Amino acid sequence: MWNKFVVRNNLKIFKNLNNYKLNNPQFNFHLNIRKMTSSSIVDQDILGLMKQERERQVRSLELIASENFTSSGVMKVLGSCFTNKYSEGLPGKRYYGGNEYIDQMELLCQQRALEAYRLSPSEWHVNCQSLSGSPANFQVMTGILKPGDVIMGLDLPCGGHLSHGYMVGDKKLTAPAIFFTSRSYQTNLETGWLDYDLIRERVLEHRPKLLICGGSAYPRDWDYSKFRDLADLVGAYLLCDMAHISGLVMAEKANDPFQYCDIVTTTTHKTMRGPRGALIFCRKDLSRIIDSAVFPCSQGGPHNNAMAGIATALYEGMQPEFREYTEQVIKNSQALATELIKMGYKLVTGGTENHLLLWDLRDVGITGSKMEKICDYVEITLNKNTVPGDKSAMTPGGVRIGTPAMTTRGFKEPEMVKLAGLLDRIVKKTVEIQSVSGKKLKDFEVGMKADEDLLKIKKEINEWVSQFFMPGLN
Questions:
Q1: Which one of 88, 221, 229, 376 is the catalytic residue?
Q2: Angstrom distance (rounded) from CA 402 to CA 457
Q3: 267 annotated active-site
Q4: Residue 165 confidence (pLDDT) above 50
Q5: How many structural domains does the chain have?
Q6: Among 42, 200, 398, 424, which is most buried by a count of CB atoms within 10 Å?
């Protein structure tokens, strides 16, 4: 009896539900929306590419100095409901409602940023909304300068950055060079070291309104006190772009720019090991100018998921394990540099004090472009880079190598020694192939793909690197 009653009752409910569905088109609409937005529906094309990229990262040697592997915690926040919210404006002063928890998250991010770099909130302010490093630098410039004012940073071929203003002859390649008068200082072309006497001459010659220290391929530390003196000499603001070394500064393994600079910018995904984003620190009296330069001057609402990821990375960066990690990053960089020098190779400045080294390949007779290409073929990822004295960024004389990413995966000094041996074999193979194919890059690629030894090296690399830990979720 009980079974018959259940069956009869369920049939009645099913009949009524069908009638409801027929008479209420919104029912099917809601079902379809629910189905479309459920976690069970996955874009198979993107999923396939994501899987391939994940496998590439697991089996490859990642040596790009500006890349790292972020944590599971950061990845979780990046894929969270923070993605959904629009929040133009500042905490407590939004142009949209519903920002109660976004406000708390952004204030927490600011608090952690100041704490991580040991800054007093009565003296320093930080904006966490800038979307990435290059916009952050341009936002600073638009806030404190007038169009046409002189800016001065390290020349790109000497290790500077495009966002500091870069020109080739009269050709202006970046927005800072277009809207401001861009001048640069150089390193010593023989040694690769900063020459503060020569920088002083350039500063007095061009009298910049903004003097920039920090770079993207300089393997030594910076003397910020000397830059402060130079800035005061001509009445300039002093900006440090610490994007590459922000993790080292946080862990007190590099000189502290905050003691001397008016403004400090950084990306958050390099040695800081966070998500892709940026921070702008400034002296308290510049806070309104900087905040306005970010919004509404140059961007709309911030990426709240990225900001939450930055807050997570800052929390991780204040743990004792991060200091140990940063120490190992530098040890690894110096161990690799020592081995390459032992093998007879030339490094710009003769070594490194931070997370990267700049390898001058001109004496070997190959370009950085060929070295990058052949390394990519065997799944070693690094980048071609200009070295002091180069005339063209398209055919640079060197490569830049960084140790943050592989240190995250567990590499230590013995792995650096093995890595140096691999790189030595690849350089010799590059010279060998070029001697047959000629110097044109397209001909070199043909010869490279016909070389069976390279496939053996690739297999060796894949088997070796795949044994190491890989953080993250996807």
A1: 88
A2: 21
A3: yes
A4: yes
A5: 2
A6: 398
Element (H, E) at 152: strand 150-154
Alpha-carbon span 102 to 86, nearest angstrom: 9
In Å, what is the CA distance from 245 to each residue of 98, 272, 383, 432, 449? 36, 8, 18, 36, 37
Which residues, at least 6 apart from 41, have a Cβ–Cβ distance to it below 8 Å?
A: 35
**Set 267, 268, 367, 386: catalytic member:** 267
pLDDT in tens, 175-201: 888 899 999 999 999 999 999 999 999
Confidence check: pLDDT of 22 > 60: no
C-alpha span between 262 and 282 (Å, rounded): 6
Q: How far is CA 351 from CA 160, 173, 336, 427, in A?
A: 18, 31, 9, 19
User: Known catalytic residue: 86?
Assistant: yes
Owner of token pair 């204030």:
107
**Where would I find the beta strands (DSSP E) of 29-149?**
61-62, 89-90, 93-94, 124-127
Q: Which domain holds residue 436?
A: 328-465
Q: How many CB atoms lie within 10 A of CB 146?
A: 10
Question: CATH number of the domain that 163 lies in?
Answer: 3.40.640.10
- Per-residue model confidence as pLDDT tens digits over 318-342: 999 999 999 999 999 999 999 999 9
Task: Tell me if residue 196 is catalytic.
Answer: no
Does one domain contain both 99 and 178?
yes
Q: Which of 172, 200, 207, 276 is catalytic?
A: 276
The residue annotated as part of the active site, out of 54, 59, 67, 86, is 86
Query: Confidence band (pLDDT; 50, 70, 90) for 13?
Result: very low
Catalytic residue (one of 62, 106, 241, 372):
241
> How many CB atoms lie under 10 A from the CB of residue 425?
15
Query: Active site includes 276?
Result: yes
Catalytic residue among 112, 183, 253, 270: 270
Whether 58 is covered by a domain: the verdict is: no
Closest by Cα among 236, 404, 257 to 329: 404
Element (H, E) at 154: strand 150-154
